[in-house]
């Protein structure tokens, strides 16, 4: 499976991973809900479970993805500082309409 993160996201995720509560845990991207042809995603700290694939990114951060969820394959984790701070997780390989902000 595939996952990409931009530089800002890597910085923020590294900070999250260096906290005490993150000890021994990894970043998981998961689907909050599906709408037919696209999904909404979120992230949390978690430990690998039976069906997970640990996906290496080019930013030295490993991301947990449930290998049974085809919509998780190819997710893009981005972090923006403007117009407001926050993560945007999209999957362009699965979304027919290009991307949209929520």
Give structural notes.
The chain is mainly β and about 100 residues long. It is about 10% helix and about 40% strand. It has 1 helix and 7 strands. The chain has one helix at about 5-15; strands at about 5, 25-35, 40-45, 50-55, 60-65, 75-80, 85-90. The chain has a 4-stranded mixed sheet, with no helix packed on it. The protein has a 3-stranded mixed sheet with strand order 1-6-7. The protein is globular. The relative contact order is 0.27. The model has no long low-confidence stretch (mean pLDDT about 90).
**What sequence of helices (H) and strands (E) makes up the elements?**
EHEEEEEE
**General form:** globular
Q: Evaluate the radius of gyration.
A: 13 Å
Contiguous uncertain segments of 5+ residues: none
Any key phrases for this structure?
7 strands; 1 helix; 102 residues; four-stranded mixed sheet; mainly beta; 11% helix; globular; three-stranded mixed sheet
């Amino acid at each position: 499976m595939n996952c990409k993160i931009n530089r800002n996201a890597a910085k923020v995720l590294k900070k999250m991973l260096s906290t005490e509560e993150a000890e021994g845990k990894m970043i998981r991207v998961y689907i909050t809900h599906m709408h037919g042809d696209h999904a909404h995603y979120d992230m949390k700290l978690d430990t690998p479970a039976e069906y997970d694939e640990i996906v290496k990114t080019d930013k030295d951060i490993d991301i947990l993805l449930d290998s049974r969820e085809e919509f998780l394959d190819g997710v893009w984790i981005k972090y923006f500082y403007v117009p407001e701070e926050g993560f945007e997780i999209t999957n362009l390989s699965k979304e027919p309409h290009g991307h949209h902000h929520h």
